[in-house]
Amino acid sequence: MLLIGKDVTFAIQAEQILICSACFKINIETLIMAQEIFDKVNNILTEIKNAQPSGAEELEQFRIKYLGAKNILKPLFGEIRNIPNERKKEFGQLVNSVKQTAEARWEALKNQAADAEESAEANQLDVTAPGEPLDIGSRHPVSIVMNRIVETFSRIGFTVAQDREIEDDWHNFTALNTPEDHPARDMQDTYYLLHDTEKLLRTHTSSVQIRTMEQQKPPIRAIFPGRVYRNETISARAHCQFHQVEGLYIDENVSFADLKQTIEYFAKEMFGHNTKIRLRPSFFPFTEPSAEVDISCFICGGDGCNVCKYTSWVEIGGCGMVDPNVLENCGIDAQKYTGFAFGMGVERIAMLKYRINDIRLLFENDVRFLKQFTSAL
Ligand code: DAH
After folding, report:
1. Which of the chain's termini has less CB crowding within 10 Å, N or C?
2. What is the whole-number distance in angstroms between the Cα of residue 161 and the centre of ligand 1?
3. What is the pLDDT of residue 12?
4. How close is the Cα of 206 to the center of ligand 1, in Å?
5. Where are the alpha helices (DSSP H) in the chain?
6. What share of the chain is helix, strand, coil (3-state, %, to 5)?
7. Mutational test site, ligand 1, from 319, 340, 346, max ligand atoms within 8 Å of CB
8. Euclidean distance between CA atoms 366 and 140, whole angstroms
9. C-alpha separations of 121 from 109, 116, 125, 172, 359 in Å
């Protein structure tokens, strides 16, 4: 009786039977050798399943041993020639499964190691340590002041309009009653565009008055906040760019008293209810009469300090009744309509309110400086 099967142990025990069965030329040595190879492979399989490398180095050794270029599985594939034909398929499957087990085990061990590392890191985390502060920005003081001006005027019915910063001569000068040879042009050092000298960076937001009057019919009641540019030497008091808020009110029977009332309302809202205003006669080409707007010094209350230079008044802008020529330039009937306009510098007001003594600080954007002005005015 011949016993060739998986259970070679049994076959070996049945040695006598095999030997007796001389008609079948069974090479018992081949069988034994084959079994040894099977055992070897099975041992490797168990070894892989039980492997528990600790640390990166042992893990790497595992990889080299079972999956590296010269891994111990490789020679096993060659052993197939020593396996009897009936078991070659079985052997091939076994060796393949060892290879797959090694790969799967390697993946699992690697993940295990990564998890361990992560939790080790997590263990080092000191949950009682103070958190890193979030670097939150803050509103720029110029924006705070500008918003406050807009809000104050919107409460008495002024709408807001904005327009371009690159202007033409007409809207920045000529329509504002400032022709080419007018000496008032020298008051504002203008930046002209190099490639298009017809165009300039607006020197004031009064240009938006013109654009608004060209587009709308009276009554007009609007303010125009925006950035303006002048070719000034930068110093503690002056900058080549700054912000203005311009105001315009055109209707029938608008008087200087309306202008004065409006300015007074604004000054009290902005600087406190004890604030007084003073309109000092002045000159602007686009208004007639024109005035400079002073407010009583809200810092010393009139006692005299270095902000008001001991005059108890501080200047915040200019104003006047819109010159009839300006109305006519925009196609508005100057017989029927009158109006007032005013303009003020936002940086100037921010510097007064926040006691900032150098305008350059407002343009350097140092957050340590800017963060001091988070509170609403
Ligand atoms: N545009 C003037 C300037 O930039 C400010 C100004 C003065 C505006 C009087 C006005 C005004 O509307 O009536 O210096």
Report:
1. N
2. 16
3. 47
4. 6
5. 8-13, 15-20, 28-50, 55-67, 74-78, 85-124, 141-154, 169-172, 206-215, 256-271, 324-329, 346-354, 361-364, 367-370
6. 45, 20, 35
7. 319
8. 10
9. 18, 9, 7, 65, 49
How much is the pLDDT for 1? Answer: 39
Cβ atoms of 226 and 243 within 8 Å: the answer is yes
Mean pLDDT, residues 44-59 taken together:
89
CB of 176 closer than 6 angstroms to any ligand 1 atom: no
Residue 306 phi/psi, 5° resolution? -75, -15
Instruction: Over range 335-339, report the average pLDDT.
Output: 98
Predicted confidence (pLDDT) at residue 339 exceeds the cutoff of 90: yes
Relative to the CA of 344, which ligand 1 atom is closest? 5
Cβ atoms of 198 and 168 within 8 Å: the answer is: yes
Average pLDDT over residues 236-263: 97
Amino acid 302: pLDDT: 81
pLDDT above 90 (res 124): no
Decide: pTM greater than 0.70.
no
CA distance 153 to 146: 11
- CA atoms within 13 A of residue 44's CA, in its CB half-sphere: 24
Asked if residue 204 has pLDDT above 50, the reply is yes
- Closest CA relative to residue 71, chosen from 82, 56, 80, 60: 60
Q: Is 357 exposed, middle or buried (0-12, 13-18, 19+ CB in 10 A)?
A: exposed
**Of 289, 282, 293, 294, nearest in space to 340 by CA:** 289
Structure tokens at 152: 């104050």
Residue type, 298: F
Residue with the two structure tokens 């920005």: 137
CA dist 205 and 222 (Å) reads 12
Strand partners, 43: none
User: Which ligand 1 atom is nearest residue 248's CA?
Assistant: 12
Task: Please choose, from the candidates 142, 197, 87, 206, the residue with its C-alpha nearest in 3D space to the C-alpha of residue 361.
Answer: 142
Two tokens, residue 272: 């406190």
Q: What is the tens place of the pLDDT at every residue in 97-113?
A: 999 999 999 898 889 88
Alpha carbons 242 and 365: distance in angstroms, whole number: 14
